[in-house]
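>> received
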Amino acid sequence: MNRPMNVVRRTAATATAVFMAALLAAPTAQAAPGARTLYAAPDGHGTSCTVARPCTPQAARDLARTVTGREVRVLLKDGTYRLDAPLKLGAADSGVSWAAAPGAHPVLSGGQDITGWRQNTDGTWSADVPAGVTPRQLFVDGNRATRARGEACAAATCDATKTGMTGATATGIDQWQRPTDAEAVIRVRWRNYHCRIAGVSGDTMTFVQPCWTNSASGTERTGPSWDSTTVDSGRYSGVAFFENAPELLDQPGEFVWNSTDRTVTYLPRKGENMRHAQAVTPHTEQLLVVDGAHDVTVSGIGFAYAAYRQPDTDEGYAGMQAGLTLTGATGPVDHAGRFYTKPTAAVTVRGGRGVSIDNTRFTHLGGAGAVLEAGTKDSSVTRSSFTDLSSGAVYVGDTEPMPGAELTGERNTVAYNTISRTGVEYTDAVGIWAGYEAELTVDHNSLDHLPYSGISVGWGWNQTEAQKSVLRDNKVTNNRITHVMEVAQQQHDGGAIYTQGSQPGTVLSGNYINRSAYGNTERDGNGIYLDEQSSHITVEKNVITRIGYKWVSNWAGYGIENTARNNWTDTAAPALGGRGSVMTDNLTGLDRLPAEALGVAAGAGARGGPVEQLRTDLARTGTATQSSTEETATAELALDADTNTDTRTLSEAGAWWQVDLGSVRHIRQVEVWNNSGSATGDFDIVTDDGTVHVSGKALRPTVIDLDSRTRMVKIVTTGTGRVALSQVLIHS
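>> returned
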């Protein structure tokens, strides 16, 4: 149908404001005067596509291609559309809108029902799986099941090398029925690896290729030349867990796949009856592909149970960063990640112009939500929800720093979306990722409970081939990012907002960031992380609180001319690195957020929301002392509102640190932030009313609730180690 493209070129900020105002004002599915309306239904058939005789989505697409001289919209009636292959829209489908019929909530699904469950004597249930289906994920009554998994195996036992790993005897894997169905899941800093066992010989395991080689060092294809986060590196600490073996099936909600018998076995949760439960596994990879089309609108449609097949192949999942993987047995030397592979997504837009994905729902996916790539321009993902995804929510752009004009991503928008519990399986994935984009707008999104970084813009590290790129004029504004860099997921070296590369004109503003890497044991997890050559970026009027490490980080000297100004935060950070970088007029070390900051934070996100007000710190005006002092790590550094400075006593029996509040105060809570380099462990908190013991290493922070009237608060080691603290806060 190839109608003329009507693309309005304006600045990203203006475009977003005008676009969202029009979008919010107009009914989703209202037809333009004289428009031709076609209908589709899950049980559609025929070719008329009327409301009384709806057809399939594919038939509606084909009929729309024959219409000339009129606008066309396709309305999907209520129900689940089970797809064996993606719905594909090309240039001939330009100008057509696809929407939910009034009052309908249609869902395009790639799911395969698993039926015929039979109960086993051990309380598990098994079912046969249709040919061609590999259940990597299983959802029972809409709840994600967990692939049966074991305990962590430390590097001393599971010693990884370039060719394999020891530990088969100690873990019992050498006695497993089918070890070649099982995978090792490994997390090294910001990377995640999933490789299937290829064989076991004595104590040694080997893994499928090229997954293992691509996860190890020496290929010259695994990222920056200085990188040391491969499975055989010094930073490898062991296997997070092995998964998918019947010997590991011991917790309700776990399942295991038997590739030989083609069965899936599940241990039900309390209250689940597999005779009546709906069990679904993702099978079809992509649900909607828009390739080379323009002015296409998709609105009000759900996408569920799409698969991501690569991790089940010998490619496995050799994670590099942000959910992108290294694939292929051979390839060009590449230290800038130009040839990394994005995860498969439920919706993919390639080379689109003016494509709008609006008010859609992405749930229960084996891979990612939406990908805009291959030179997609003036397109958007807006007002949509993403939850329970194995990988990230939205990927925009590509990894080639200097693509041709047709392949450059420009003026795209990701706005007013809610993203939660993504990266469930591939924990190195981020909520929103953008590669080499220009005039990108990421605005008013809400991101919550993510394993790694929230929003990531830019690529290429400090590598020579990445130092000149199309990156410029990107806006990351008014987003709400909470509970990211989740400690339990063991991903490190990221931030709520993460950038790479020189990006002239890029602004990070008005964002509310709370609890990034909160509760960590080490200095890790930033608020805003200007990483690897990030340059010419302005960070202003953000509210950043309760952060595990720095509220803003620009550690590399080759990240230049960055500016952080007029931000509000409860901690301090060292000065920005790099020539010409400045920090000015920031309100740091706050123990109460002022009204202006509360207003900025409350308005951030898809629908605004509550703000965690800071609690007044009674220790701030106290007097600190300690039993001894190592070098310059004096006691008052725990009261300076800076979690980057530390106290440290000598290592001695009964070492202590204390604060005199100046008068008897009623205290209800003590926060102890560790010195991660010499973390305090197994200590007592002593007040005038008694003693509370804390076992294990102090976190960032360890929070202890009390009800005490006291003048003195003392932290005493119960052994012979140091008391080493980054911060101590006391609240009434």
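>> The chain is about 5% helix and 35% strand.
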